[in-house]
Amino acid sequence: MKRRNKWILSWLLLLCTGAAFAQSSESLLIGPGDLLHVQVFDTPELEQSGRVTDDGNLQLIMGGKVKVAGLTPGEAARAIEAALLRNHILLKPHVLVTVAEYATQKVSILGQVKAPGAYTIETPRSVLDVLSLAGGLTELADRRILIERKGTHEKIPYFVSNQAGVSMDTAIKVDPGDTIFVPKAGIVYVLGDVKMPGGYTMTNNEAQLTVLELVSRAGGTNHTAVPSRAKLIRKTDSGYIETPLPLSDMQKGKKPDMPLQANDIIYVPFSYLRNFALGAAAIASSAASAAIYRF
User: Fold for domain 2-101?
Assistant: First the structure.
C-alpha cells in the first residue's frame, strides 16, 4: 500500500509537471525524430522512451504502432490510451507523454534579414526574438513576412510594425522547425519633372505608399512641371496600362490621394513636352534603369 501511495504521489507530480510543460508549449507539435517519454499510470512496465519514426509513428512496448506526428503531447497520450484499449492491454489506461528531445530545434530565417540562416531555438519564441537572431530586417525588407509551420506547412502572414507597442502586442510564437521568409519590399517609381526622379522602396510602417507620399519623397514637382497631365502606368498580365492621374487636384485637396501598388510608375511631364506623346512602354523602359532610393 505504501508503495502504491508513493507511486500515486509521483504520478501526480509528473502530471503537474507535464501540464505546466504542455501549457508553455501547447502549439509545439510532435514530429519525426522527436524523443518521447511515455508513462502509464500504475503500470511501470509499460514506461518507455522512443523516437518517432520518419512516417510519424511511435512503436509501443505493447499496443503496436501509434501515429503521433502532428499531435501535441496531450493528444499523443490520448492516442496511446486508445491503442491500449483497442488492443485489450489495459481497461482504463492513463498515459502521460512528454517530449524529452526535439529532433528539429532550428528555425530557418530567409530573405531580407541581415544574417539569413538556421538558428537553434529549443522552445517557442516570439517572432521578434527570432528575427533578432538574424540581425533584424534589412532596409529593403517588406514588413509583411510569412511563417511556415513545421509539419503542417501552414503559412501564417505577420506584419512587423514599426510601432513598438503594436509589435509587442501582436507578436506570435515561432516554433522549432518553422521557417520565416522576409520578402523584398515593393518598389514604385516617379519619373519626369520632379526633384529626385527614381524608384522608392515601400518600407514605411504600412508597407505601402500613396501618390502624394511618393511625390513628396521625390522632393515634389518642379516649377516647370505639368502635374495636371501626370500619368499612372501600371503593369498587368496583358502589358502596361496608362491612365490619367489628377496629381494637381490631389495636391490642392480637390481629389483624394490614392494608394500605389508595387511597380507602379508615376510620370510628371515637363512643360516643354506638353505636346509630346510619351507612351507607357517608353516610360516603363526608363523606370528599369532608374536609381533606387532606400527611404
Answer: wza like fold (3.30.1950)
